[in-house]
Known about the structure:
- By secondary structure, the chain is mainly β.
- The protein has helices at residues 25-28, 161-170, and strands spanning 2-5, 10-12, 14-17, 20-23, 34-37, 45-53, 58-63, 86-92, 98-112, 119-127, 137-140, 143-152, 155-160.
- The chain is globular, with a radius of gyration of 16 Å.
- The chain starts with a strand and ends in an 18-residue tail after the last helix.
Amino acid sequence: MEExxxxxxxxxxxxxxxxxxxxxxxxxxxxxxxxxxxxxxxKIYSAEVLFEDRESNLALLKPLDSKIFDGMKxxxxxxxxxxxxxxKLLTMSTMGQLVVHNTILTDVMIAKTVTSRLRMLSxxxxxxxxxxxxxxxIIHKGRLVAMASSNExxxxxxxxxxxxxxxxxxxxxxxxxxxxxxxxxxxN
Length: 188
């Protein structure tokens, strides 16, 4: 799924089933209009931000027309991956085609998210290309294991499947618990 906001930026989302598309909260932050388009397709579908959690930097979109999903299967969420695991980061070319980039997980860490002051569990992937890392899915063995959330040089920081699963399960509850913290921030 390709997604654009009023900033005229484009991001990749992941169809997670239930008529929903997963993106980073950064992709839809302050968006007045959200549109979806299938990669390689021309038709544009209006969508609404159904749920957003800036602490985890995740959001769910719901297209107003479910025909966008015709013939599609939802992505399965994977398990935790270990350091040294090779994965694929998916982007879109200027011609609107899917491009696969090889990555390797170099670190599992606690890092600040781009949409919150809180720190969350994060993956750090090494990638050859610079400038990637703003909402791209990271796939291992055909499953979504992370979603890119920021970058630094030839590294991409990503939200791990553990956090994505928690967000997806908890987003259906009336009383969203989110990701609790002790409310204390330290510095050296």
